[in-house]
Amino acid sequence: AAVTVDLSEANVEAGEGIYTANCVACHGADMKGGIGPNLLDTTWIHGGTPENIQHTITVGVPDKGMLTWGPILGPEKVAQVTAYLVHKNREATGTTGGDADTKPDSAGQS
């Protein structure tokens, strides 16, 4: 069962360590991609809501070489790394949530 993504500071901090240990190889230390896509823009291939991101990490994208991380990390760590990704993406894009899987009409629009 999926764990609810809690964007608390503690979860974001825990998620950073999980990202560094498991995700840097494909998504880069700067989160701007490499083998895997950029995580700091507003383009989400598999949806950009916390639930979409959590699902993508859990089931992976085997066709593109992304592991099925759910059984490896477990639900709590998946939720923590999701919190970290959401936090860093919102920081980078200036978004606050809502419909993060579409590009905003113009930068800075609220």
* Beta-strand content bin: under 5%
Oligomer: single chain
Helix proportion: 40-55%
Shape: globular
Please give the count of helices: 5
**Strand segment tally:** 0
Give the termini distance in whole angstroms: 34 Å
Largest sheet: none
What average pLDDT do the residues reach? 89
User: Which structural category fits the helices and strands?
Assistant: mainly alpha
Low-confidence runs of at least 5 consecutive residues = 99-110
Radius of gyration: 13 Å
Order of helices and strands: HHHHH
Short overview:
The protein has 110 residues and is an all-alpha fold. The chain is 46% helix and 0% strand.
Describe the structure.
- By secondary structure, the protein is an all-alpha fold.
- The protein has five helices and no strands.
- Helix 1 packs across helix 5 and helix 3 packs across helix 5.
- The radius of gyration is 13 Å and the shape is globular.
- The C terminus is likely disordered.
List strands and helices in order, with pairings:
Blueprint (H helix, E strand, L loop, with lengths): L8 H14 L1 H4 L22 H10 L10 H4 L1 H19 L17
Helix pairs in contact: 1-5, 3-5
Summarize this structure as a short list of keywords or feature phrases.
110 residues, mainly alpha, 0% strand, globular, disordered C terminus
